[in-house]
Design brief:
The protein is α/β, with parallel strands linked by helices. It folds into two domains: 168 residues, 3-Layer(aba) Sandwich (Rossmann fold); 145 residues, 3-Layer(aba) Sandwich (Rossmann fold). It is 43% helix and 15% strand. The protein has 15 helices and 13 strands. It has a seven-stranded parallel beta sheet with strand order 3-2-1-4-5-6-7, sandwiched between helices. Helix 1 links the parallel strand 1 and strand 2.
Length: 397
C-alpha cells in the first residue's frame, strides 16, 4: 500500500528566510516521502517575491502581512492570526521554520499551540545578549525552546544548544543552507540590469546596513566612515545597497547622497547580489547572511556590529568585528586596502559555514526522524578553501 507523503509546512517571511529555505523546499519536492507546503508571511514583500521567483517557487499560502511602518507587535499579531488558520487547515506533520526573524518565532509558537512538531533550520546561533541583534537574538532563542528538531549549521551552534539542555539526539549539524543557495545561483548567468556602471580600475566596497540597533547615530557613524574612505582612497568605489526601511535610508541619504564614487541603490535581488559579493574587493555589513556567504566566495568582510551570533567566521579569520565607531571602521578597512598580506589571510581562510550539501543532510535527517531510514546523516565538517578571492565570475566550491 502506498503511503501518502507527509505534509511539511515551510514558513518564510523575509529575504534571508527565502534564500535559506528555497533550496530545502526544492530538495523536499524531489522526495516522494514528503509534501512541502510553502507559506509566505511576506513581512518583506518585494524582496521575498524576488527570491521565490529566482528559485522558481510560488507560495501555497501568501499571508501578506506587510504594512507601511509596521511595528514588531503589528507583525507578530497579524502573522500569528493568519498562520494559525493555515496550520488548522493543513494539519501538517511538521512545521519547518528558518533562522531568527519574526516568522520563525511566530511559526514555532503557532505550531506549539496546535501541538505540531517543529523543526528549526539554522538553530543554535547565539550572541548571549538579547539586545544584539534586536529582536533576532530573542526570536532564535525562543524558537529553540519550542523546537523538536534542531538543524545546527556548525559545531559551535550545536554546543550552544547542548548548554541549553537540548536533547543531543534532536540536533543535527548540517552546514548552512545559504551555501547551497549561493552555489546554485553562482553557477547561473544573472542579468545585472539596473545597477550602476562600475569602474574596472577601482576596488569595490559593497555595503549593507539595516539592523535596528544601528539605527540613528550608529548608522551616521557608518556612513561617515564610508565617506572618509572614499576621500582617502582614490581607487575605491562604494556600492551601498540601502534597505527599504525609511529609518535606514533617511540617514544614509543625508550623509552619502552627494558623495562622489558612492552609489546608493535599491536592494538588488539575490542573484545580482551574489555576483556583487564576488565582484567586491571588501564588504562592510551588519547582515548575518553575508557573513556566511562572502567567505564562500573568498571576499573579506568587516562586520558593523559589536557582537555576532556567527563567531566561527571570526575564529576562522574570514570576517572581523569592527562595530560602528567611525575611526575603527576606517582603520580596519584601510588596513585591508593597504596591507596585501592581511587581505590575503582573510581571503584564503577556511569557510566554516557549509559545503553546499546542507539540504541533503536535512532531508536525510527528516527521513530518519520519521522512520524512513535507519541512520542519521553524517555531520558537516568544514574543509579548507582551495583558493582565495577569485575576482568577478569566479566561484570557488
Amino acid at each position: 500500500m502506498t503511503t501518502a507523503p507527509l505534509p511539511l509546512l515551510a514558513i518564510v517571511g523575509t529575504r534571508p528566510d527565502a534564500v535559506k529555505m528555497a533550496p530545502l523546499v526544492k530538495a523536499l519536492q524531489k522526495d516522494e516521502r514528503f509534501r512541502p507546503i510553502l507559506v509566505a508571511t511576506a513581512q518583506h514583500r518585494e524582496m521575498l517575491d524576488q527570491v521565490l521567483r529566482l528559485f522558481d517557487l510560488a507560495p501555497d499560502f501568501d499571508l501578506d502581512v506587510m504594512r507601511p511602518r509596521q511595528t514588531l507587535s503589528d507583525i507578530t499579531v497579524r502573522t500569528m492570526e493568519r498562520l494559525d488558520d493555515v496550520v488548522r487547515k493543513v494539519q501538517p506533520s511538521m512545521v519547518v521554520v528558518q533562522g531568527d526573524a519574526a516568522p520563525s518565532f511566530c511559526g514555532a509558537l503557532v505550531a506549539f499551540y496546535n501541538r505540531v512538531a517543529i523543526a528549526h533550520i539554522e538553530a543554535g546561533l547565539r550572541t548571549g545578549n538579547k539586545a544584539h541583534p534586536f529582536p533576532e537574538e530573542a526570536y532564535r532563542h525562543m524558537t529553540g525552546v519550542l523546537a523538536d528538531v534542531h538543524f545546527a549549521p556548525t559545531d559551535r551552534a550545536r554546543d550552544n544548544l547542548a548548554r541549553e539542555n537540548v536533547d543531543p539526539a534532536s540536533i543535527y549539524v548540517t552546514g548552512n543552507t545559504v551555501i547551497d543557495a549561493l552555489y546554485e545561483i553562482s553557477g547561473r548567468t544573472v542579468p545585472l540590469a539596473g545597477l550602476p556602471a562600475l569602474s574596472g580600475d577601482r576596488r569595490l566596497l559593497l555595503v549593507t546596513a539595516h539592523r535596528r540597533e544601528n539605527w540613528g547615530e550608529p548608522m551616521r557613524n557608518i556612513c561617515t566612515a564610508i565617506a572618509t574612505l572614499v576621500e582617502r582612497f582614490d581607487d575605491v568605489e562604494v556600492l551601498f545597497a540601502m534597505h527599504r526601511n525609511p529609518f535606514v535610508r533617511d540617514t544614509v541619504e543625508a550623509v552619502l547622497r552627494s558623495r562622489p564614487r558612492v552609489h546608493l541603490i535599491e536592494p538588488p535581488s539575490y542573484g545580482p547580489f551574489v555576483h556583487l559579493q564576488n565582484r567586491a574587493h571588501l564588504i562592510l555589513t551588519d547582515s548575518g547572511g553575508v557573513q556566511e556567504e562572502a567567505p564562500a566566495l573568498g571576499t573579506p568582510v568587516l562586520v558593523l556590529r559589536e557582537t555576532t551570533e556567527r563567531p566561527e567566521g571570526v575564529d576562522a579569520g574570514t570576517v572581523k568585528l569592527v562595530g560602528t565607531d567611525t575611526e575603527t571602521i576606517v582603520r580596519e578597512a584601510a588596513t585591508l586596502l593597504t596591507d596585501a598580506d592581511a587581505y590575503q589571510r582573510m581571503a584564503h581562510a577556511t569557510n566554516p559555514y557549509g559545503d553546499g550539501h546542507a539540504c541533503e543532510r536535512i532531508v536525510a535527517a527528516l527521513r530518519y526522524r520519521f522512520g524512513f531510514s535507519d541512520a542519521p546523516p553524517a555531520p558537516f565538517v568544514p574543509r579548507p578553501r582551495a583558493t582565495g578571492h577569485g575576482g568577478a565570475g569566479t566561484f570557488p566550491g
